[in-house]
Amino acid sequence: MNYDNLALELHKKYGGKIALKLRDTSELTREKLSAYYTPGVAAVCREIAAHPDEMPVYTWTNNLVAVISDGSAVLGLGDIGPRASMPVMEGKALLFKHFAGVDAVPIILDVHEPDEIVAAVKAIASSFGAINLEDINAPKCFEIEERLKDELDIPVMHDDQHGTAIVTLAGLINAEKVLGKDLNSARAVFSGVGAAGVAIMRLLKKYAPGLTITAVDSRGVISATRDDLNPIKKQLLDEGTVSGDVSGSLTDVVKGADIFVGVSAPGILTAEMVKTMTPNSIIFALSNPTPEIMPDIAKQAGAAIVATGRSDFPNQVNNALAFPGIFRGALDHGVKKITDEHKIAAAEAIAGLVANPTTDEIIPSVFTPNLVETVAEVIR
């Protein structure tokens, strides 16, 4: 099927994917109109003015998330700008509503500096119950998220970072279970040190402190000998997330590795490289739409378990497994900050939904019954 043509047809037919719906769908009588608007609504306004924390009791902020992007890092498309990113933000809102019943409003910002984005989000944050940052490029996405988490009293999460990290951890928990291995004694090589790569590495290291991680960017291994590292890469070394005592290229460091995680570029991992990894290696080739290595090639070269970001192969690392349940739980349980402990709990909950993991089923489907409820329950 030609999905490009189908997408253009459906988006044009419906004029987008989302719309507002009234909560009270019964007849709008004169009495109700006087209560929902003037004069009765003034009593609700006075109540919130006197008790600001009760805003979610009286307004839709109890179920409302802002999906915010500047369009600077749209999956597979790059920096296409805010207008062109709107279909993706609408799609995110669709997933929120379909899977978790969460109302989401896509907001595109035609500003791009961290100070501008932070100011814009803070200016509208009171209208929402939570903020989902989306498709903002690195390294500015790290600063923006941290500042907003510190300065707002509602949950803030950059899903490109943490949704990917949570589902990757869930998959690796089950992959290690299938192969009888231990993450704490494994060695992982990462290709890509952008938003998703950094978040995955940090979450894995938090979950398995004994895991050895080597990271590679477009110029080679992130090591203490390099003088061209940006502040985030230096921080990864300083905090001990990545090992800084090796150097070379991806070809060099993938030798003897147990795990490869790619969040970089298509075709960057070859069959010859896979053959140099440990027997029964694990490969998460997450570049979309074309992975770092195709699953059949990786398996022929000796990989035991392969995951990608695609739905047409087994073991899809799909953020939709995580973010609907995380925000559902945060809204329902009054969570103000989404912590590393929440992310690990979510990963374990997702992994636990696969009763008997196999090499071709380490990650549940987004259509798994009770997925959202299971994840939401641990976000407290």
Task: Please describe the structure with a list of short key phrases separated by commas or semicolons.
Rossmann fold, globular, four-stranded parallel β-sheet, 16 helices, 380 residues, alpha/beta
Please describe what this structure looks like.
With 380 residues, the chain is an alpha/beta fold. 43% of the residues lie in helices and 12% in strands. The chain has two domains: 3-154, 3-Layer(aba) Sandwich (Rossmann fold); 160-380, NAD(P)-binding Rossmann-like Domain (Rossmann fold, 3-Layer(aba) Sandwich), CATH 3.40.50. The longest helix has 21 residues, at 159-179. The model has no long low-confidence stretch (mean pLDDT 96).
Number of strands: 10
User: Could you name the CATH topology of the largest domain?
Assistant: Rossmann fold
Shape: globular
CATH architecture grouping of the largest domain: 3-Layer(aba) Sandwich
What are the segments in which pLDDT stays under 50 over at least 5 consecutive residues?
Answer: none
CATH homologous superfamily caption of the largest domain? NAD(P)-binding Rossmann-like Domain
